[in-house]
Amino acid sequence: MKRAIHLLLITIIFASCKKSFLETMPKGSLLATKVSDYDLLLNNKQLYDQSVGLPSLLLGDDVGAEQAIFQNQPARCQLAFRWAADWYQGSDVAVEFNLYTTNLYSCNKVINEVMKAEGDNDSIKKMLRAEALANRAYYTFQLAGFYTKPYNPSTAATDAGFPAITRAEINQSYQRGTVQQTYDFIIKDLTDAITDLPAKQRVYTRFSKPAAQCLLGKVYLFMGRYNDALSQLDAAMAGVPATEVSLYDYNTAFADGGAFLPVGLFGPLYPNSNNTDFKESLLVKINAGGSILGGGFGNDGLSLDPKMQSLYSASDLRLKLYSTTYFNGTSIPGGRLRKYGQQFVRTGVQLQDLYLLRAESRARTNDLTGAVQDVEYLRKNRMPVADAIIPSGIASDRTALIRLIIEERIREFAMEGYRWFDMRRLSVDPLFSTNNYTHTIFNSDGTNSTFTLPVERFVLRFPPAVMIQNQQMSNNP
Questions:
Q1: Model-level pTM greater than 0.85?
Q2: Signed CA dihedral, 10, 14, 19, 24: sign only
Q3: For residue range 141-176, what is the model confidence (pLDDT) as tens digits?
Q4: Could you give the angle at the alpha carbon of 187 between the alpha carbons of 183 and 193, nearest 5°?
């Protein structure tokens, strides 16, 4: 990855900075001297408003593909949907890889230099460094979710990890280390960051303490460390009131005069159609929700998989985010649905994710009552209250309740890329490890083409361009 990072272009990364900020750029370094310079660096739009789509939109089994439209997607999208081993060819740029690694460069600039910046306010310097540490952990966690095997306690010490990128240098050599080392690195960054982060974010695109605690809880949950996860998620939830973040109640948002109305050509006015709607975001990070808009991976030509569609009750107001027609107004065959208002997907730290992560952690640690409270609170904001109640037979059965919470994650985040990361962690979970994952292409002639996810494709291969530039690294099988 030594030259993958040199794709960092000053005109992209510092588009939002003052011209005087970078009058010269020494090799392997970007010139910053004042605390305000590093603050500007963390305001870089690329850290939070990312115009590219992500492959996770195509990798989850919550999506199907409508061949009539999907056949017009770039080859890499069609190969990703089929869970092929290699999507990129030759010198093709892997946009999601480059986006995250260039953002790591910016994080490391702040982490390694801000404490020596001009100015005497050490508390501000520590806060900026903490924000950069939390962002470094976030991007490393995302990259691990693509390029390392799922965390498995029995093999993490030997499975190949993702390199710990700690220097803001263009030319450097990387070793992959192990999955255990990758997760230890993420945990340390978040743990170090939490002490100096503010209780309330200055702006919603910047890390707060509750956002970092939620992310650390999610990391622990993905590792199967449920007690540790619950401790962090409880702390994050306790800090939510100070952030002024709250859930939309779909019962009122879709009622006359509600916040999501009127429903226009691009769907309801909900957060995924409005990149300035931060009501449910503890930390705002946005990716494109469709390849027409984002020029990358996206949901154009994708529909909600019928198995996932069957998980919704008729009164679930989240169904109002879907359309029965293509964009041109023609009906989608078979009564299938597409998420028609989704111009963006929220990939930062969402309040609804906090509720579901804590519900799962509570259920995993045998606090079934607490788990039910969390998941019902979310459901009451997504459907009529009477329909949100979990049946007593499920509420009192730990395994059944965990399965319901996982299904609730599908209902809440379908077609937004979350499912891929859940599939990975569940593949090494004894409760779900026997699951099979399939994709279906619904052909124009009424036939279907089905693809089954091979176990080795829970981890992606590095693109050829990355391997050419980093020949000392091993690729994934």
A1: yes
A2: negative
A3: 999 999 999 999 999 999 999 999 999 876 677 889
A4: 145
